[in-house]
Every structure is written in structure tokens, then in C-alpha cells.
Amino acid sequence: MTQRGTLGVAVIGAGRMGADHVRRIDEVISGARVSAVVDLDPERAKRLADGIDGCTAYTDPAAAMAAEDVDAVLIASPGPAHEAALLTAFEHDLPVLCEKPLTPDAASALRVMEAEQKRGHRLVQVGFMRRYDAEYRKLKALLDSGQLGRPLMLHNRHRNAASPSGFTTAMLINDSVVHEMDVTRWLLDQEITAVTVLRPTPSENAPEGLSDPQLVLFETDGGAIVDVEINVNCGFGYQVKAEAVCERGTARIGEEQSLVTDMAGRWGGTIAQDFVERFAGAYDRQVQAWVDATRRGEVTGPSVWDGYATAAVCEAGVRAQSEGGRVEVELIERPAFYR
Amino acid sequence: MTQRGTLGVAVIGAGRMGADHVRRIDEVISGARVSAVVDLDPERAKRLADGIDGCTAYTDPAAAMAAEDVDAVLIASPGPAHEAALLTAFEHDLPVLCEKPLTPDAASALRVMEAEQKRGHRLVQVGFMRRYDAEYRKLKALLDSGQLGRPLMLHNRHRNAASPSGFTTAMLINDSVVHEMDVTRWLLDQEITAVTVLRPTPSENAPEGLSDPQLVLFETDGGAIVDVEINVNCGFGYQVKAEAVCERGTARIGEEQSLVTDMAGRWGGTIAQDFVERFAGAYDRQVQAWVDATRRGEVTGPSVWDGYATAAVCEAGVRAQSEGGRVEVELIERPAFYR
Amino acid sequence: MTQRGTLGVAVIGAGRMGADHVRRIDEVISGARVSAVVDLDPERAKRLADGIDGCTAYTDPAAAMAAEDVDAVLIASPGPAHEAALLTAFEHDLPVLCEKPLTPDAASALRVMEAEQKRGHRLVQVGFMRRYDAEYRKLKALLDSGQLGRPLMLHNRHRNAASPSGFTTAMLINDSVVHEMDVTRWLLDQEITAVTVLRPTPSENAPEGLSDPQLVLFETDGGAIVDVEINVNCGFGYQVKAEAVCERGTARIGEEQSLVTDMAGRWGGTIAQDFVERFAGAYDRQVQAWVDATRRGEVTGPSVWDGYATAAVCEAGVRAQSEGGRVEVELIERPAFYR
Amino acid sequence: MTQRGTLGVAVIGAGRMGADHVRRIDEVISGARVSAVVDLDPERAKRLADGIDGCTAYTDPAAAMAAEDVDAVLIASPGPAHEAALLTAFEHDLPVLCEKPLTPDAASALRVMEAEQKRGHRLVQVGFMRRYDAEYRKLKALLDSGQLGRPLMLHNRHRNAASPSGFTTAMLINDSVVHEMDVTRWLLDQEITAVTVLRPTPSENAPEGLSDPQLVLFETDGGAIVDVEINVNCGFGYQVKAEAVCERGTARIGEEQSLVTDMAGRWGGTIAQDFVERFAGAYDRQVQAWVDATRRGEVTGPSVWDGYATAAVCEAGVRAQSEGGRVEVELIERPAFYR
């Protein structure tokens, strides 16, 4: 791969997420092409690959990664398959964009971390795409500027119109609040040290057995307090809001006001109905940033450390949900490699 | 009347507006009482007076104004009856709050102006109640502070859900836009020198024969340009908005955001359905300010000059509507008495 | 007192709060007058009384309450003096508007409750004035309408530009969060059953020794979760915001948007700098509602039970602050008298 | 060119606009590459071309268009050079994205229109990029849906922090209001039939001799009335706002609320300082849409008819500015080719 050549990407996983990334690289992203699609289901891989000029279908990730025209790997397979795919990519020294979660638990994340460190240089960007959302980036830039002083609290709202079938109480933490865990760590540049979960009487909209909504609280090693309303059956739409309360002011994002109508006795606007509407731009920017960095020979964005730390906070969060009270987060010391 | 005694008020006119003022003085206003209610219809006057301790019903305004317990007059009868009531109040040297319009045309307003000047001191406050609205007052204070520099343009929106039956195209000017005429003169402290009216194809909501909405344009002697969307069958509610565009910034009022909901796929709030909801506070403050000033022996607020100037602009506006093009406003020179 | 006569009010306490109520009754309120001003400091009482026609100064509350022209009592003295003044008012069977707190602790509130019950009818309205704020009333009406379904969470922000000198960590609960306790109980029509307090590293704006800001959490007997950001040295102004998260939507208040400017590279508006600017209307409406009800021979508004229950939650809150963890609230069973 | 091959683009003009398009095609756009850069100044063309793999510098547009690897042309040279470049592209039957204005006046636009018709199929997309702005597209979709009924009025604000040196009063129309002309025609799907211009006393911020701001009024053949505040020295930033007033409601765009702060006594956000910040996304989407359509063998977007009609409205606008009063727009009958 020359520095300015087109990046050949192998997409691992041809499900909903993988197919969306294939479409994105083909139609939206500049400087990359899909060279390989990998799926255990050969039919599914072939259907996706057939739509793309010069793209080959595989069932074996290792075979795809060994191909001449593959310069980088995008992992969008189910979480339990990530560890093996990552280790294979490391063998080929291929840069990886790995959808979140890095791996399903902290122990496996630690193994990936050790393997990456053995390569001697970073290879992995983890798919915490909120870091590429325009509004979150403005908030981050403002916090980093120091204009508002030190952050004291961070209030978050995370609402979905309805949870998909099969969604469990633990998934509220592992699939949903995991985003606020990453956002908290990134915005504040602090680690989360304890988690508490308060559970109101569930909403009538929540499926039988799902304790929804919940109020999830983080404490950080920088002395900040973070609250997250997670509310995955709110009924009215998809909303992600954040407000950082700092020593000299507050800043908030997440108010959608792009089209306001006055009609039938009401003023206001529509609420996005899913994360695609709210975060499509963030996904695009995430992949473009990864392609651009990879073509420059760099690895940027959320690291394996971020994937590991978030997995550890998730484990504490799920325990806090089920046991009640405050649960401390246990992290290994951060390797110099990830500083 | 001692300075701190309770002000006895005669309310002339027991229709909707008069009855509302009677209720206001009885229930809301501090330092005043309704001593007399006057209406040509003796039954209507009596019904209203009976609800108030120590209040007498009259059919003759002159008789009411001669009564011992009447210290001041509030005129809320139909416009054509104003001139006679004002002249009678002048004979008794009674302070007056006169509902707008002062009189139906500029010629009669001039006669009232001459009569008031003969008394040697101001007696009349004209009921342009927007000057007592909290938002307009903030805007006025900001403009007067000079922070924004000189006003260059003023954009206005004036919308009603539906026009009352019998509402004519001329009433768009005389009953509705008259408020923006007063607001323009007051906010900018400038006289209106010309009026132009642009008429789109009428809305399907407008009753047969009513040319609604319209875009009404003023030029002022201070070189400002003012536009007014008058739209009295907008269907969705009552809205009054203004934006002053100045040399160093703009300022706007009229966004109602006191309760915001997220529900059924939409965020936003309700729109007021009539002027009472929007301007109830302004009516209260107007009458309280008049009572307070009268008890101090002062006359403040919009003057007979304001009533006259607005009548002259209305006459130009109605001509501009019917004849098209730009119509100049003709005003007498402002008497020193009204400076 | 005849039903429609002017209500003669004795104001107990001539400090800042008392003086403000004297001015309010004199200048704003309809149907009431200040007949008596009581203060331990005879000079202070006299100075205030001298400005009002027919108003007498007293140093002894009992003497004032025994006066012919006193029909009702407004208690605005320091909290520790409330119990004695209330019991004296009960002896004279006088209706009372008692500034919050009813009394400084739950035990004394219980004694007042018993004494009032012995009179056989309610005499006391407690001064939780947020219930008279226009925005909170809209929110309450919306929740009561059932349109949004059952409330699940209530998020609150309570910010002051700076705390007065001598403000202690306990006063964050007793003087500030006490308002959210009342608001929670009133909006949700539920009792608070437990309090948890999370304390971030204090802001650099907080005076030495003051743990500010804090995140205070309530659980209610209806299964709702409530969070309160209390932040009394936020530096930028006075803000009170609330968002009710319900089964079918959310509703929020506290966004001040009455005048928006575009200037010097920024759009937006000013933030109120103290509670007077934000809640002046609520104080006026509270006193007017009390005067109107009293003249009708009724007692409405927050009751002694509300004063007691709030005192009990405050006690739990202060313990949660100092001891950490979750503290349960202990209430006696609610007497039928207060249902 | 195969349907899915990468589109080779010749960019004509290596000034600010051309350089920005070269960067865009190189870094942002998917499916296209810059094969040629053309500029009269060989050094300028070379500097730009040197940064791009496989890109050749030219001084003669015809030579570039004759090159093997040029599939399409993007014209970003000064307006007076457009006609010749367009006619050359027509000779090579190359699809063109032509920056606005199509040509400097209606007469030359007519000549281009005739030449394109002779080719028998559309080749040109005109660079009215607001049609690709996300907010304008939402507004267009809402109007087209019919939910709001027929549009009656369109209010527009177009503000720049400061005008570039050499900006003339006529350029207010030709360079700035030209966008609202296109937006009006596109949003309403109506032609503009008359223009009126009202000029307040110029702002102290306007350079000597520039009559700024102005209120520009359009009438349309569908009976709508449109007003445009054009204000190119407003001092505080770049703003483009629009409100469509329809029979059943209104809709507005242009309120930037992506990051709101509370700080130093004020709430609000920053105002974009130039059109790049506001419309960068629109430029990207415009070029991507052109590349995508071209690769599919289609021509979409604003046509030569749109370029001609806007030029005719500009001519009327400049006359209305200088002569005062209402000036009618004269258009040829719309050829069937452009329906």
C-alpha cells in the first residue's frame, strides 16, 4: 500500500452492521474500497461481495487477511468472535477498526491488550463512534479548552423508542450505557471508579421482565459524579443528550432543532426515531478518520485500553444492577503503551 | 382623593372588554376599586355592578363622572363613543385610561388632542397595552441601552388562529396591525412616514372576501424599515413575535418555551390560542401602572399624541391596502405639549 | 371580616423577607392591607409600619394578633420563632401564611400538627412558593392530566450564582434542596422514602469547608427516582429546572427564553441572577391565593403535613450527606385530617 | 467510463473555490478523482495538481477536456469565463457541475440554454448548493408533503459578519440574494415575477458607499410574497434562516443549537462566522450527488433554466435597488426541455 493508494478493506461479518459498513465504504468513504467480505454463511458473504467491483467473498477471516488486496480489517462480527479475529489480524500486522464491544468481558480484553503490546505498536481502533459525533466533539473541545473550568458532574439521557426483542436488563448496561461509559472516560479524561444503579418501578412500556428505565451513577478518579438516565422503551423516539457541569459554567448537547414547525396548536420538531438518524454522520466520520489515519500509517481513536476499561465498568454496572448498592470498578494499572 | 387612598374608578362600557376590566380592578389590582359601571343598556350595567361592593350602575357617563366616589375613568365602550366620553372626563378633570383606538380616525383624535391641551395638563393614557408586556419591555430596555447600536429593521409576526366573524380587510390594519404601529413608534422612538402593503393569494382559511395574510411595510423618519406579517387565520394559534435588527446585533421576543414536552415522536410546546393567554399580564400591568400613577397625581404611558399618530398611520395603511403601492403618512407637527 | 372586606394582615418579622411581604401586600396584592408589623426590634418594626397608612408596629406577636384590625397572620420571622407564633395564631383562630420552613425540625412540626388538629380545621398555609410558579403549575397540570402516563423519574437542577456567607453543607439540604423535596411530593403526589447524596470534589468556587455541588437522590413510595443537582456556587446565575420522565413522554421547565439576542458572535439570553427575578411572580401569586382563600373563609395550599414531611426528609438528607450511603425517611402515618 | 468506475474530473479554475473543490474531491468524495486542474496561471494550476496522484495541470480548458482520463468537468473559474467553458464541455459531451452564477447575465444564460438543448440531453448541474443543505432539504420535503398546505409567505434572513473589500451594492443582489432567489424558486416551485427593494439608512458597519442592509421583496407566479433581509455587515456572524408560512402552519430553519452553554450570566451558543462552517456539508453533498448521478449516467440538480431564471431575477433586483419601486421580471417561456 502506497501512502496515497486506495485502502483495501476486509469487512468481517456480513450482518446488519457489516452490511452497513460495506455500503459506507463503497458509497461514502473517500480513499478506501471493500476488497473482501467475510461471513460464516457463504451465501450471505457472496450476496454482499457481489455488489462491489473487485470484492471477494470468504468464510475464513484468516484467508481474507492473507489476500494481496487487503490492507486493513473492519471487524463487525458478533462480540464473541472478535478476539480470534483481532489475534489473526495482529499476525498479519493489519490495522483494525473493531466494532464495540472490543470483546465480551474484561478478561478477554486483557488478552487482546497483551497481544497488541507484543506487536510493539498500536493496531486497533475500537468503534466507540460517539467520539466522532459533531456535537460531542464540540463539547469535548470546549471542555479541553479549559474555558468552563474543571468538570464536576455530567448528566446524560439515553432514550430509545423501544428495545429490540430479547433485550435484557444486563444489556441496558452492556449495549446501551456502555456508550456513556466511553463518553465519560473520553470527555473527562478520567477513569470510572464505582457504579451505582437506581431502579424505579418499570415503565408499562417495558417488556415483561425488563427493568427499564434506570438511573446509573458513576464516580470517577477525578472526583466527578455522572448520572445516566437509560430509558430504552421511552416510546417517543431516540435521544442522546449530555450536560457537563463545570466550575465556571455548563455546556449541553443533544437538542435537535433543525426544523421547527408551528402547526395545530403546537410548536416544535420531530424526534429522531433511531440511532441511524442521530449518529449516521458519526459512523461516516469514524470510518473516514480510520481510513485517513491508516493511509498515513497511523493508529488513532479509541484504543484497546478503552475497550478493556469499558468492559470492566460494564461488569461493575451489571453487578450494581443485580445486587444493589455501590460497586467499585477494578482496573489493572494502565500500561505505558496506552498513555 | 388622598395620595394613598383607594382609587374609585368608573368603567364606561360593560361589554366584553369593560367586564374584563371590572374583574381585573376587583380581583387583581392593588389600590383601586370599581365605584361605577356605565352602559347604555341599564340591565348590562346593573348585572356587572351588582357583583361589586359599593358599585353603582349608570347609563349616562356624565352622571357617573359627577359622582363623589369616582376619581378616575376607564373607557372601554365602542370606539365611536370615545370622543364624547373623553370630553366629559376633561370637564370633570378626571384622569382617563382609554382603550384603543383613542378615536376612530385622525380628525377626531386631533379634536381630543386640542381639548386635552386646553386643560393645560395630560389626563389621558391610551390603552396600547403591549408597552406593558414583560418581553416588549425587555426589548425596549435593550434598545434604549444602546448596546445593540441603532435599529435598522424591525420584523414582526402577528398571527391569530381565526378572525372573528365580520372581520374586514381594513380591520387587519385598524384592529390588528395598529399594535405594531404603536410598537414601532414606541420601540424605535420614531414616527412612521410611509406604508406599503403586499398581498399574497389569500389563505384557504380566510373567510370569503378577506385578503389574509398580508405583508405590511413601514418606513420611519429615522430611516428604519419595518415589516409585519399579519395573518389572522393562521389556524394554529395566537403569536406575536418581534425581532429588532440593529447595527451591532439583533434581539427577538415571542418564543414561548415555558413547558417543553417530548412525546409521540415530537418535542415542543403548545401555542397560546388567544391574546388573553399571551397578554393577560400586560393588561394587568397596564391598569396597575395607571392606578399607581394616578394615585401619585401623574399621567404616564401612551398619550393622545400616540393615539392620533397611530390613527393617521392606520388611514395610510388602509389606503395602501386598497390602492396598492406606497402611501405617505401625513402628521401635524408634534405639539410641545406632547414632547 | 366580611367576605368581601379588605383583609387586615399582621406581618411577623421585619427582616428582608418580612419587608418584602409588607411591600407586596401594600403595592401588589388586591383585597388585603398590612395592619400590623411585628419585630423584636421596635425600631425596625416602626420604620416598616410608618410607610403604611393605618399600620401599627408591635414587638409582641400576641399583642398584634389580639388587635381588632388583624384578620390574618403572615409569619416571616426566623424559623426557630415559628412554633410559638403559630401556636399563638391558633389561640386567636387566625389563618396563617407561614414562610418555610414550618419549623426547624420534624419533632416541632409534629407539635404544630397536633395543635392545628385540635382546632378542628386547617389554619396554616406553608410558604412553599414554587407551587405558585406558572411553569411548575403547567407541569403539575400536565402530569395530573395523565397524558404522559405515570412519572418514572424527575431530574432537577438548582443553581445559585454564589452562596451567602455562613452557608453550610447542611443548609444545601435544609435551605435549598428543601424546595425540590416539596416539589417532588407535590408534583408526584408521593412521599419520599429514602435519600442518597453523592458528593463530587467541591468546586473551586465553593467557600472553604462547603461541599458544593452535590447530587441528591430521592426514592418515593410510588416507585419514582428523583435526582437533584444542587450547585449553589455555579458562578453564572440562578437557575431552577425540572424534567419529569413519564411512561409516555417527558416534560421540562426552566428554560428562560424571553429575550434572545445575536451579538458579538453569540446567540442566547441572560440568566437570572437571583430567585427574586425567577420567582417574584410566584411569591405574588402565593400571597394573592392566600388572601383570596382567606377572604372566602378557606385554607388551601401546602399544609402543616407538607411542612412536617419535608422536615423529616431534610433530616434524612443531612444524615445521608454526612454519613454517606442511603438513608431511609421515617414518617408517622398521615392523619385523616390532612388527606 | 464504466458505470462503477472512478470518475475523472477536470476542475476549471484554481482559485479559492477551485482549490476547495480539488481538496473535496481528493479527500471527501467517494468515487471520483481529480484528473486535471486548469488555470490561466500555469504556476497556480501546477501547484494544485502536484498534490494529487495522477493529476495533470493545464492552462487551456479545451485541452483538459480532450484528455483520456477526464470524464466530467467542474467549472469554478470567474463567472465571465463560464460561457466559453460550458460550450467547450458541450462539444465534448461532458457532464458539468458549474459554480453559480451560470453566466453573468440573462442573455448569456439564454445562449448556454440554447446550446445545451441542441445536445438533446441535459449536461449541466448549476452550483446552487443550498438545495443540498440538510435543513433546507427537510423544509423542502415538508412543503412538498402538503402537510402545511400551500405556502403563502417566505421570510428569509441572510447575514454576513462583514462584506469582503470591493463588495458593491449590486453584489448584494448578484452574489448574496441570488441564493434566496434560487431557494424561493426551488422551495415553492414557482417563478419570481417582481422585485421590490427597501433600503434603510445604512449601518455604520457598512463601508462607505455600500447600502447595507436592505429588505428585498419577491412576488411569485403562485401568489406568494417573499421577503429577504440581506445584511452583509451585521458584525456578529454568518446566519441563514428561512421561515415558510403556509395555510396550515409554518416551518423554519437556521437556528444553530448544537452546543448550548450557561456561563458568565448568559445562556446560548456561538454563531458560525462564515459560510464554510454553515454550508460545508451542503458543498460536500452537492458534489457527491453530482458524482453519483454522473456515474449512473444521469444529470440531476439545478438546471441551466434555473441559472437563467435566477440571472433574470437578479437583473430586476439590481434595477429595483437603483431605481426604487417595483420591477417586473421578464422570462422567456420555459422550454419543454427543462420541465
UniProtKB/TrEMBL annotation, chains A, B, C, D:
E.C. designation(s)? 1.1.1.18
Task: Write out the similarity annotation.
Answer: Belongs to the Gfo/Idh/MocA family.
Catalytic activity reported: myo-inositol + NAD(+) = scyllo-inosose + NADH + H(+)
| Assembly | Homotetramer.
Query: Per the UniProt entry, what species is this protein from, by scientific name?
Result: Streptomyces bluensis
* Tagged with keyword Cytoplasm: no
Upper taxonomic lineage: Bacteria, Bacillati, Actinomycetota, Actinomycetes, Kitasatosporales
Checking Gene3D superfamilies in the record gives:
Dihydrodipicolinate Reductase, domain 2 (3.30.360.10), NAD(P)-binding Rossmann-like Domain (3.40.50.720)
* Protein name from the UniProt record: Inositol 2-dehydrogenase
Domain Gfo/Idh/MocA-like oxidoreductase C-terminal, first and last residues per copy? 140-329
Q: Which UniProt keywords apply?
A: NAD, Oxidoreductase
Q: What class of enzyme is it?
A: oxidoreductase
Q: Give residue ranges for domain Gfo/Idh/MocA-like oxidoreductase N-terminal.
A: 8-128
